[in-house]
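no rush on this but wanted to send it before i forget. what follows is a protein written twice so to speak, once as letters and once as structure tokens for the fold. mainly i need to know what kind of three dimensional shape the backbone takes. thanks a lot i owe you, the record is right below.
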Amino acid sequence: MAKRSRTKAKSVSRVAAAGPRILIAEDNEDIGQTLQMLLESLGYEVELCPDGEAAVRASLTFRPDIVILDIGMPRLSGYDAAHLIRKSHARRTLLIVAISGWARSEDVALSKSAGIDVHLSKPLAFDALVAVLDDFRKRLPAGG
């Protein structure tokens, strides 16, 4: 029985290692943890940060392929975090997704000017996020 558990753990670990790395910055702990759990169940390696400032720092060590940012966060907004993350990872393929309750056309325009690729509104339709992530994964070089 223990052998089967060990085998299963190795299998899940291989899937997570093969999938893109996702950094989430969300100041609502329940939303962040739920999103982390759902994405990990799909095989992504996920790191969760409570604000934009922590996300910028974590991006330098975790080196994500995908960054998911709330916009209205303490310490550093999602717009500012996206700008700094994009600047520090300028030579890497990086998808930045905003998930925000702020969804007016002006908010989407601010996202684009901050270097955010996709702006999704809250409440989040998880299948819409999965579609964005799947599309990005298809565009990654083999082995990425």
In short: The first strand starts at residue 21 and ends at 25.
